[in-house]
Design goal:
single chain, about 150 residues, alpha+beta, Beta-Lactamase, 6-stranded antiparallel β-sheet
Length: about 150
């Protein structure tokens, strides 16, 4: 069974990092590029989920700086911080099919998101500070080269 997120602890940990509403950080671009290459997708992002929004600390292949939290796939991913959330076809996934990220101009189909866990709290129910995600506008799975 996956560990469940304590949203108050997660938000408190995010606040302590003081990274919300700061500029994208090129130091994280290498991580995002590696995720894009390993998952063989054109888009990858490092997402931070705040109280009402999701914004991207680093990214490749997508120029959008943020989204509302209520449409963020990562908001779902951080609910189980030790498990990869993989959506092979968002156009057929009941919880994502109506999302503007799927139905809008982006036309998102594939999503793989893994929360990044704050090491200080890893022994307890770990707050997922950001999530690392890989995106594609085509249906697919992470196989044969799975994202890890």
């Amino acid at each position: 069974m996956a560990a469940q997120i304590d949203e108050r602890a997660r938000q408190r940990a995010l606040d302590e990092y003081r990274v919300v509403d700061t500029l994208p950080d090129v130091a994280y671009n290498d991580i995002v590029q590696i995720a894009s290459i390993l998952c063989d997708v054109p888009m990858a992002l490092m997402s931070l989920i705040d109280r009402d929004s999701q914004w991207f600390k680093a990214g490749r292949g997508m120029d959008t700086p943020s989204t509302h939290r209520d449409i963020a796939f990562c908001a779902q991913a951080i609910e189980a911080p030790t498990v990869l959330l993989e959506v092979s076809d968002a156009t057929r996934a009941p919880r994502f099919v109506a999302s503007p990220l799927v139905t809008g101009t982006l036309g998102l189909c594939f999503y793989a998101g893994m929360p990044l866990i704050d090491g200080e709290d890893a022994v307890r129910v770990a707050p997922a500070i950001p999530a690392l995600l890989a995106l594609n506008c085509w249906r697919r799975r992470t196989h044969p080269r799975p994202c890890r």
